[in-house]
Structures are given as C-alpha cells and as structure tokens.
Amino acid sequence: QVQLVESGGSLVQPGGSLRLSCAASGFTFSSFFMRWYRQAPGKERELVAGIASAGRNTFYADSVKGRFTISRDNAKNTVWLQMNSPQPEDTAVYYCNAAFGSLRDYWGQGTQVTVSS
Prior knowledge:
By secondary structure, this protein is mainly beta. It has strands spanning about 5, 10, 15-25, 35-40, 45-50, 60, 70-75, 80-85, 90-100, 105, 110-115. A hairpin with a 6-residue loop joins strand 5 (about 45-50) and strand 6 (about 60).
C-alpha cells in the first residue's frame, strides 16, 4: 500500500534550523512530483515548496523563498524540506504530497513544526 511518512518536526527556536523528511513507499516515487504543504491553526492549507520528478525544477512560496530548500533522492524514495531561519509564522503541521499529474494524489499524515523561543 501507498505510504508517505513525514518525520523531523519538532520545537525549534527562531533562527535555528530543521529538516523534515518524507519517506515514500508503495508507488514509483521517481515518477511523481513531490510537494510540501502546511496548515496552521485557523488557516487554509498552503503550498510551501515543490520539486519535479528528476529534481531539476523547484518552486517555493514567497513566504519561504530564500529560507527553505526542497530536495529529493529517488534512490532513497525520500524528499526533504530544509528549514533555515524558521520564524513563528512558520508554525504549522507540514504535509508531504505526491502527485502524478491528475491521476494520483497521495498525502502523508503530517508532522508538527513549532517555532518558538
């Protein structure tokens, strides 16, 4: 069965760093676009970053551009989100998403990131 398992979320101080991981199984990972979303209390789900199947193309929300980096290793079936200089407004549940055009769309259960002193 398809699984996306996020890990790495924790309490982190503003200006610190954190790396989220998403381990995928049950599908052909290298054929899928991967994305990170987040949802803060009382807010809509927000696209944070995305990366194409071969890792050559990436995109970022304006709010995180220059601070966060998405990457993937198809040999490890893993995608990461490196969070540098996180701020309190980055506090949210972060979700891993895998998409194959409009044919498939998979989601992980999320990992909590709390940015606080």
